[in-house]
Amino acid sequence: MSAKTVSVKENILAANTEKAEQSRKLLSSRNVLMVNVMSSPGSGKTSLILQTVNRFRHKYRIAVIEGDIASSIDTDKITRQNIPAIQINTGGGCHLDARMIRNSLDTMDLGQIDLIFIENVGNLVCTADFDLGAHKNVVILSIPEGDDKPYKYPVIFIEADAVVVNKTDVLPHFDFNLDDFPGIIRGLNPSAKVFPVSAKTGEGLDSWFSWIEEMLM
What we know:
Layout: H1 8-29, E1 33-39, H2 45-56, E2 62-68, H3 73-79, E3 85-89, H4 98-105, E4 115-119, E5 136-142, H5 149-152, H6 154-158, E6 162-166, H7 181-188, E7 193-196, H8 205-216
């Protein structure tokens, strides 16, 4: 009798992709844009989202889905701005998946939302494998992390629709070649937009805001 080999990961990803596509179709039917924001811990996901919320809060209805291994620290920062947020604690898991996101969407009044940000778990590896049903995937890379991360973690940059290079205000103190970095991204992903910004000072954010608004109009 011959043994049968079953690829567990392939089965998991196939089921996840199906659930993600269902969510994407649901959101599109309600004219809701969902953006998945990924990065290493500390790169500035929450700071970028808060800056974007402050820019658009009087024009668009925004909600946030927060993913963390534990705690609600980032969610608390969002809700203090009177923005609805849903906390997902993965209990040790290194990423969110489409089922978690769909469960969150089912608790929302999508008729009262224009834009949803997903703040994914801080991780450059397994977050890239799981389609969450978002319309756009954004990767944040901070200046202190170094410009070699696309070589070390190519998949997440290949999957990105935009790469935000955050913390440009500290560029003089680190060995990060910002002039050559867009070329590195183009070599992996020619269609990805690159936005050098400082979520702290506001430098460069207008181009990021314009990209978001183009998709909302």
